[in-house]
């Protein structure tokens, strides 16, 4: 398939959603290992997948299917927003190969920035949302065994979205600079 501008959009927009979903699945699997209660007492309920897991309250096993369901539902739309933004910014690049390489690098930048800011969220959660600071937080599910871990997971999860948007802006700057450099030749 020739990589025309139209084909670039048709290929990269679904691919962006898939990349976002894969990132979210990996992120959520690691997050589940850190704090299963974030899912069993919050995310599975929020996304309506809890009824699919008998005996969930005991936290036995690793519910990969349910984690993946939550991750995909929570992330595909971010992939669409990020993919659309980065792809549209790259469309003016004439050479299809350069356009594809630029988009791939921009997606890598976005992913890296997202991961770094997500981890920052874990630290933020530990410093500002645990212990006595937790009293300032409005909603906590009943019966949490590890409320500090829950709050750290909650913070990491929210910082992931902040990271994705920040990563998109950093990648956009990269694309704009790349286009200016290409136009100089």
Key structural traits:
185 residues, 75% helix
Q: What's the short version?
A:
With 185 residues, the chain is mainly α.
Helix content: over 70%
Number of domains: 1
Apparent shape: elongated
Mean pLDDT: 91
Based on DSSP secondary structure assignment, what is the total number of beta strands? 0
The multimeric state of the shown protein is single chain
Report the portion of residues in β strands. Answer: under 5%
What integer value in Å does the Rg equal?
19 Å
Structural class: mainly alpha
Largest sheet: none
Spans with pLDDT under 50 lasting ≥5 residues? Answer: none
Terminal Cα span:
28 Å
Number of helices: 5
Question: What is the succession of H and E elements?
Answer: HHHHH
Transmembrane segments: 74-94, 106-130, 150-176
Keywords: Membrane, Transmembrane, Transmembrane helix
Task: Describe the protein.
There is one protein chain. The chain has 185 residues and is an all-alpha fold. It has one domain (5-184). Helices cover 75% and strands 0% of the residues. The protein has five helices and no strands. The chain has helices at residues 5-34, 36-46, 64-90, 96-128, 147-184. The longest helix has 38 residues, at 147-184. Keywords: Membrane, Transmembrane, Transmembrane helix. The chain crosses the membrane at residues 74-94, 106-130, 150-176.
């Amino acid at each position: 398939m020739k990589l025309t501008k139209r084909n670039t959009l048709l290929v990269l927009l679904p691919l962006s959603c898939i990349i976002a979903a894969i990132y979210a699945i990996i992120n959520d699997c690691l997050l589940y290992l850190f704090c299963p209660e974030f899912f069993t007492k919050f995310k599975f309920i929020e996304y309506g997948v809890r009824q699919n897991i008998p005996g969930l309250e005991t936290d036995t096993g690793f519910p990969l299917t349910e984690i993946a369901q939550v991750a995909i539902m929570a992330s595909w739309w971010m992939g669409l927003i990020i993919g659309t933004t980065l792809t549209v910014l790259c469309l003016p690049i004439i050479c299809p190969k350069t356009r594809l390489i630029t988009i791939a690098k921009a997606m890598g930048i976005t992913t890296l920035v997202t991961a770094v800011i997500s981890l920052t969220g874990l630290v933020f959660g530990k410093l500002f949302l645990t212990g006595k600071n937790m009293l300032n937080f409005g909603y906590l599910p009943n019966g949490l065994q590890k409320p500090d871990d829950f709050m750290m997971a909650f913070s990491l999860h929210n910082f992931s979205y902040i990271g994705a948007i920040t990563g998109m802006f950093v990648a956009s700057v990269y694309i704009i600079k790349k286009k200016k450099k290409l136009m100089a030749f």
